[in-house]
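call fold(seq) -> tokens
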Amino acid sequence: MTKYSPLARRVDVPSTLTTDYLSTLSAQDETALLSYLNLPPLGAFDDQAGPPALGSDAAYEIEAQTRLPLLARREALGGRFASLDDLRDLANVSDAQIATIVERLGDLSRYGHSLRPVWGGPESLHALIELLENAERYIHISMYIIGGEIGMRVARILAEKRKAGVEVRVMFTASGFVISGSPSGTGLVSKLSFARQQVSDRYLRARIVQHMLDNDVEVVDTAPLARHWKRQSFRERGIRDAASYYRWCRAEGLRESWIAEQEALDRVITRGMPYVDHRKMVVVDGKRALIGSMNIADSYFYENELAEDPRVNVKRWQWHDNAAILEGGAIAELNHHFACRWSLSGGGTFDPDDALYQPPNERRGEAIVTQVASVPGLLEMPMRRNWSRLLLSMLGADRRPLVEGSHPIRDRIIQLPELAQQQLHVEHCYPSDAGLLERWSERLSKIPEFVMVVPKHYDTVLMGLECDRFFPDMQAAGARLYGFNQAIVHSKIAVADSFYVATGSYNLTVRSARMDLELQFFVQDSTFGNAVRERICGDLARCVPIEPTAIDRFRSRRSIPLLDALIRFFLF
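ret:
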């Protein structure tokens, strides 16, 4: 099928839906059509260019002249189309209008996906190892962190796959101050454990990289993100300044859109600020991918079940996180994101549109996927507008940073409570974006059920202080907040009305919008949405209700002089 063209919406059509047309649809088209029409909005929200324009016809992929008669019929049937027979003899909807929808669903870069949630260390580890071991043509890994014993285990698997002829490319932060969570290499049991872990972690990362290089696995360090001509690997090629770097990019045939992205990063990124590539993906053969918020390290992937005593898990540095296995045409776009950063960072060039990397698309399910990649510089915290707020915060006033700009992931996440008509379930590790949480709180009274799982235990004390101060206001607005008590939680997932899921690498922090390369997926699918909601609700058994302390209530209205100014304006 050809890709859907929005211009097809405007064609004048007869106002009759005939039995003859419906009978020509294949079983696959019938399943896809019914699944699409049974989504809560009836059809999907139009979220490709940005957040759905709620309050107008433009919020939906199906125009009102088609959508409203279908919605009325669905409601008359009790809220669901069971078969194509339910569409017959429908007034004011024509064959051409339904044909336009069927044609749209043939765009398998957006429609026809399957997603399966994988939750917690053991289940996620099994899914990751199975994914890698089944690779036949290529493996592309982009991670923020690879470390610990699981990092070495993955490196050994990649080495074996490379010997078997599989192409393997790996990108991650291989240098700098990054804690991967590898207690098995340090024994995280003493007051010196943090320092010991840092030393051990750098050693393990070096071993992991060396093992991969020794076995012909291609590796690129994602740090630093900008001014690549300062890298030793480029200096060895005689590239020592911006002009020679960009001449090299064009000589290598890199796409102008990729070069423009790097030029923007070079303008935005300054020395001393911790800008990172925070994206997370494992792509195999162009058919399957592991996506979500999990790094490849012992904190995220482990074989044992979590202990009942949270102190044991915190001491082991074993966290609670989740990911998903994605199948479908959206993986081609994942490869484009990978190829962009890989090539710009000096990893060599490959054509992500080559048949090797893009197998023929097949319908794998009924999920609709919008993936959004972001770069630093889209959201700013200009000091010209924040000096007075900073000074007042240093003196104890509650002055929160002002930000400027539009961020494609943040804007969509801000809107989640507006998309939810009945319920919103969230599990996030670092909820500290004041502007985002304030917008959420304004909407909470209109949602019958808002459940949010947040950390009971944090990996850093300062982050915990900053997050906890928002909880009194959120609870006053109607949020039911639960602290995950069995381990440190690292999840970054939300689902509205059991069908609209936001998952990926993005944290609910201003720094994610300002400083990190992020990758987020917005999925419209009742099967995946229900599964995510059930997993979040299942986690409630390991939670305790959030009970704000006196200091939380104080900090929701005031600031601790100096300390809060540092946290709010410079750290998170």
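Residues 1-14, 182-194 have pLDDT under 50 and may be disordered.
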